[in-house]
Design goal:
Blueprint: H1 2-19, H2 39-45, E1 51-59, H3 60-63, E2 79-89, E3 103-111, E4 117-123
Antiparallel strand pairs: 1-2, 2-3, 3-4
């Protein structure tokens, strides 16, 4: 009887120890995970129009190729989140756009941990790859 009790305690300790390996995480395990907090403000900037293509976390330096004159972006050593949407966008459809124009994609830049969009624009070509190859 005593052996069964010791075995039961050992089994319970093993389950608790291994359970820590499968605990809930607040992350997808990707470099872009912090950027999912940027989705609500990016979606609001496009007024829910279009289809979400993806989210990328990039350095401002990487984003500034070609260089941009926008002073609303943080210093170049910081990271930002770039959210892309696909749809038919007309001038004025996207908040925070510096140049009103029409196009097939809306690109919204938001700080790493959400908040208001820093910059947005409408284009016919994406600055980064947002889709997985299938």
């Amino acid at each position: 009887m005593r052996r069964a009790g010791v075995a039961g305690i050992g089994l319970a300790m093993g389950v608790v120890a291994l359970g820590g390996c499968a605990s809930a995480h607040n992350s997808l395990g990707t470099g872009s995970s912090p950027c999912f907090q940027a989705l609500p403000s990016a979606t609001k900037a496009v007024h829910g129009k279009g289809r979400l293509l993806g989210v990328r976390r990039v350095s401002v330096t990487q984003l500034r190729r070609p260089p941009t004159t926008s002073s609303s972006l943080p210093p170049s050593d910081r990271s930002v989140c770039v959210v892309a949407f696909q749809g038919k966008y007309a001038p004025g459809d996207v908040d925070h756009a510096t140049t009103p124009r029409s196009g097939n994609y809306a690109v919204v830049t938001v700080g790493e941990h959400g908040g208001d969009p820093l910059h947005a624009y409408v284009t016919d070509t994406l600055p980064l790859r947002f889709r997985h190859l299938s």
